[in-house]
Amino acid sequence: MSEPLATVLFVCTGNICRSAYGQHLLARQLEEAAPGRYRVASAGTQVNPRLTVPPQVHALERAGALATLAEHSPTQLSGRTVARADLLLGATAEHSAAILRETPGALNRSFTMLEFGAAARALATGTLPAWSAPEPGATTLAEDVRSLARHVARHRPAVRAALDTIDLPDPYGREDAAYTAMAAALEPAVDAITDLLAGLARRG
User: Which fold has domain 6-199?
Assistant: First the structure.
């Protein structure tokens, strides 16, 4: 039997802007860098199923390569969805709090998108202490992701101290520039997370 996929879950409010874009961007990049190893999903805390991804998100420069974004439909956050995820990435601290209301035990695998992106960069540059990885093959990828998340959680204060904010503002209903600003903040975080998670997958 093949090893189950490791799961990353993005969370925002309506699941049509920040978490949707983050999901489809990370999914595409991980499928290129570590094919068949990750499942990337997203959900919202206050979903309106009648809404769709705004045209301003589709118009983002890197969105043109995300074929799956056109098929995105918002999903309501649930305790079951949280429990299945190995890494949880909220748009803001408020979304992280909503995740923990669903599943309090998820604290050490729940971060904001910008927070975990900063942690991934800090691990790559040696600014954060290195994660003590188990022997290759001794654990599943999902177990490795959860172990790495616990390591990052222990250094959460240092990660947050290096950031001006851990929150990614909501562009919905605002001017087009707000969507561009959202992408400019989120894309480097997703790139760093891609490198980190792809590196984990290559260990096996």
Answer: Rossmann fold (3.40.50)
